[in-house]
């Protein structure tokens, strides 16, 4: 769990580092150092930002899976599972009520 939090923080810092202004600063440095054209530099920046976004999405999915695993390990259910079970109980109660009416029509 600590490793996951560490990865999330590092990913967040990486995403911040590639914010638009920081990205443009990095782009200017790289273009000057490696003599890239404007188009090459922009393509590189877009690729880096895309990679950072994909990493962020991947980390979010991994975090969600880890939380679900932790919830299950302590015997809890997710909100979706709870809602499903609640709907099933309501439906079963409705069916039992109908069966009781059929079995004893005088009531």
Short description:
By secondary structure, the chain is mainly alpha-helical. The protein has helices at 2-17, 20-34, 38-73, 79-103.
- Class derived from helix and strand content: mainly alpha
Query: Can you tell me the overall shape?
Result: rod-shaped
Largest sheet: none
The counted number of beta strands is 0
Could you explain how this protein is built, in words?
This protein starts with a helix and ends with a helix. The protein has 107 residues and is mainly alpha-helical. The chain has helices at 2-17, 20-34, 38-73, 79-103. It is rod-shaped. It contains 4 helices and no strands. Helix 1 packs antiparallel against helix 3 and helix 2 (20-34) packs across helix 3. Helices cover 86% and strands 0% of the residues. It has 2 domains: 2-76; 77-107.
Outline the secondary-structure elements.
Blueprint (H helix, E strand, L loop, with lengths): L1 H16 L2 H15 L3 H36 L5 H25 L4
List keywords for this structure.
rod-shaped, 107 residues, 2 domains, mainly alpha, single chain
